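TA notes, week 10

Several of you asked for a full example with nothing omitted. So below is the full record: structure tokens for the whole chain, then the designed sequence directly under it. When grading your own attempts, check the secondary structure regions first.
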């Protein structure tokens, strides 16, 4: 579904991502893990069209498509990404605090005009996150951190994406909420969504991922199946507390 070739990302003189190559097959959960500054968020932001100084190729084949329908995402705008079926739940949630839960979700469907379909997807988001339904009238800024994270993920789902990108969904959450968020990620994947997950919580990410890439200072230093990397001595030493 998504293939990244020789990707470089720059912020002025800072070379944040240094020629990485990776693949996200359709229907998979693929995770990027690493410490702060490793290049994880820069990679996902490049895919979302949020970084301008980018070199390389980001090749996207919509769900069910063949190579003839492949699109290079470099230079595409975030709005074009959404129309292609790519949605992102950003680091820090970035919900609109002055809008209600319901309004934030409706905003996620801004490219759509199928009213009945939007209502169905909103109801499904409420099934995934019952607490959001209970607080549908509440301003986003008054929600707890965990509830705001649920809202950010729900908003991403409202565009009917084929590829869902989640940037640090467990950041700042209590352990019980982290467990709940990762269960929801599994449910989203079971619905047929492909998931690209950026995480510092290596243990939780590797447990759920079908494949994983480990980044250090802009380079991929290790890759493999999630279950295999959980057992890798180098990963245990660096990311899992030995």
């Amino acid at each position: 579904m998504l293939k990244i070739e020789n990707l470089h990302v720059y912020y002025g003189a800072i070379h944040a991502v240094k020629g990485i190559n990776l693949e996200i097959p359709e229907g998979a959960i693929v995770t990027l893990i690493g410490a702060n500054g490793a290049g994880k968020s820069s990679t996902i932001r490049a895919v979302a069209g949020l970084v301008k100084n980018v070199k390389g190729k980001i090749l996207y084949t919509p769900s069910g498509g063949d190579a003839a329908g492949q699109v290079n995402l470099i230079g595409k705008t975030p709005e074009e990404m959404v129309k292609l079926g790519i949605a992102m739940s950003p680091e820090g949630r970035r919900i609109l605090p002055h809008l209600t839960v319901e309004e934030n979700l409706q905003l996620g469907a801004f490219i759509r005009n199928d009213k009945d379909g939007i209502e169905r997807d909103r109801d499904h988001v409420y099934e995934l996150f019952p607490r959001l339904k209970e607080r549908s009238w509440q301003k986003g800024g008054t929600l707890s951190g965990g509830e705001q994270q649920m809202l950010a993920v729900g908003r991403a789902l409202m565009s009917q994406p084929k590829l869902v990108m989640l940037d640090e969904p467990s950041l700042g959450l209590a352990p019980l909420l982290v467990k709940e968020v990762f269960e929801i990620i599994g449910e989203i994947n079971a619905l047929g969504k492909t998931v690209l997950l950026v995480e510092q919580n290596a243990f939780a990410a590797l447990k759920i991922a079908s494949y994983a890439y480990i980044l250090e200072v802009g380079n991929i230093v290790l890759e493999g199946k999630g279950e295999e990397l959980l057992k890798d001595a180098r990963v245990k030493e660096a990311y899992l507390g030995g």
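The two ends are 34 Å apart (CA to CA). Use that as a sanity check on your answer.
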